[in-house]
Amino acid sequence: MTDLQDAVHEGLTVLRQLIQIDTTAGAGLESKAALWLCRRATERGWQAKVVEPQAGYGSLLTTFKGRSEDALLLLSHLDTAPVGSVGDWSRDPLSGEIADGYVWGRGAVDCKGLVAVWWAVLLLLERTPLERSVVWAAAAGEETRSPWGARWLREHCPELRRCSGVLNEGGGWPLRLGRTPFAVCQVGEKGYARLLLPEGRAYACGQVRIHARLPEAHRTLLRSAGGVAGAWAARLEGAAAVWFTQWMQRNSPHALDPHEMFCHCFEVRRSVEYPGRHELICRALPGELMERVLDHGLRRWGLRLNEGCDLLELDEPTASPLDDPLYEAIHAAHDLPVLPYIASGRSDSSWFRNAGIPVYGWFPHIDADDLMRMHRPDERISVAGFTRAVERLYTLVSRFAADPAEAATKRIPLRLR
């Protein structure tokens, strides 16, 4: 049986070698990484394959079969943000170098770090009797919302259609509210719309925020973390919720943006795609249809949605339930109280939530400083954080997917020297 130290060692090896494979988003480079992972997986006897609906956009699918048809999906992606200027990095961004207790390179956290964590978790699951099947997907095209990545897999692969729950990136971050440490679990994402504004008018670039009715996730966060004062802020909503959250996070190493948490956010900017024109970007919380939010926001500029505005992109907000067994398992398996939150960005999670499948962003124990380096120079992940993530996620997955009789007595195989 593989123990934790061996699993972590191999996971770090996988991470370092993946970083050395350039999978910059939008270039169709993921197949090389997917094929490399597939060869390594099949050498271990895993049921693995590469799915490539478009040349270069290959994704890895690996299945550990359980006794039931129900399955848990472990989601990750192979593409990365561009490196940018190599001169801004203190180390080679495609080296996967280990130094000072960190693995350095593009994708170390987002998202090759999670790819490698799932690899280590599967090593530990190799001989675990499973009730639920466990499916691992290392998908192409996440950073560009490509139609050839997780979206295509969900629509065309039977393995993913059987999944009733998904664990993905996007949460697990440490958060201190007042004197109490928490971890945040991403349970939804704001909607996104991009509109081309009418010509012949003067627009000032800038941002506008409109207070929204709080989604249940953020009501729960305020009530759980803030006691009586938090319940008061949740009831008053608006500026009270923003102020209270800012004040509660004053000593937190990583802070959530309270305006994104409690407001529909609008931004007017010059269009790159249409020179000489302006675009409106909207990020809207769950609870209202995007069309209604957009119409409300456009009135700030004296505009109406159906009068001269061209809709370029539209994604509705998504949210997963807070009473789902997978979310409850996340609470039970973690060493800190867990709070739900709605993310302002978009990820592959939306493809599954839109199909009615609960998704929870949960990549725990990543240092706050490492989170700030995603999509920036000197991206890195600490070896200690990687190890803790493997341990916690193995505990979660094994308890949730294992045979109930096995799960009752399950202990992680430790042998740290």
UniProtKB/TrEMBL annotation:
Keywords: Hydrolase, Zinc. InterPro entries: ArgE/DapE_CS, Peptidase_M20, Peptidase_M20A. PROSITE patterns: ARGE_DAPE_CPG2_1 (PS00758). Its EC number is 3.5.1.18. The keyword Acetylation does not apply. Pfam families: Peptidase_M20 (PF01546). Coiled coil: none annotated. The keyword Transferase does not apply. GO terms for molecular function: succinyl-diaminopimelate desuccinylase activity. PANTHER family: ACETYLORNITHINE DEACETYLASE, PEPTIDASE M20 DIMERISATION DOMAIN-CONTAINING PROTEIN. This is Succinyl-diaminopimelate desuccinylase.
